[in-house]
Specification:
Layout (H helix, E strand, L loop, with lengths): L1 H14 L15 H27 L6 E3 L3 E7 L13 E6 L1 E2 L5 E3 L1 H4 L2 E4 L7 H7 L7 E6 L20 E11 L2 H4 L1
Antiparallel strand pairs: 1-2, 2-7, 3-6, 3-8, 4-5, 7-8
Length: 182
């Protein structure tokens, strides 16, 4: 009887190890993100190479590089204007969208004049930055890689995913906000 009691006590002590934590069924290694980053780098490099080739063939215009990752040239400049839009200013501008081969996707008439409050409303990233480079009555053509345009989504209409774009943008008016005057 004493042996059975000791055996029972030993069995109870052995089973009191506590519950084991559940392990995840699937272990994430982070390789998806690494692969995605590499795909993005490759896409950007291919698009930049294509854009560089287009700019090299265009001997008529002098392209300027923007630190935000797009290129542009002025079609018309306004040397008398001194003010460029700042955050909070409201601007009225028109623009069109084209492929890099100059095939029109949307005309400026289809889009219509666009009223936009600088940095307070949504436009695609490249256009948000492009408008800030213009003064009243200036017009410039911008070349946007897909990540500065509509990216992986496209516009769910005529612009497909991963599509680099060209756009001629003309700034018509600037309504200066009180914040910009201070």
């Amino acid at each position: 009887m004493r042996t059975i009691l000791i055996l029972l006590l030993a069995l109870m002590v052995a089973n009191c190890g506590g519950p084991e934590p559940r392990r995840p069924v699937e272990v994430k290694s982070g390789s998806f993100y690494k692969e995605s980053i590499e795909r993005n780098k490759q896409l950007v490099a291919e698009e930049e190479q294509l854009i560089q080739q287009i700019m090299a063939k265009d001997t008529v215009h002098e392209y300027l590089a923007n630190p935000n990752g797009f290129w542009y040239y002025f079609e018309s400049k306004n040397d008398t204007a001194i003010y460029s839009p700042k955050t909070g200013d409201q601007v009225l501008f028109s623009y069109n969208l084209m492929t890099l081969d100059n095939d029109t996707i949307y005309t400026s008439e289809e889009i219509g004049p666009t009223s936009y409050v600088i940095d307070k409303q949504q436009l695609f990233p490249g256009l948000q930055n492009a408008v800030k480079l213009l003064k009243i009555n200036e017009k410039a053509t911008f070349v946007f890689p897909s990540l500065q345009a509509y990216g992986y989504q496209g516009d769910n209409n005529a612009i497909g995913p991963k599509t680099p774009l060209k756009s001629s943008v003309e700034l018509h008016t600037i309504i200066i906000s009180n914040d910009s005057l201070n």
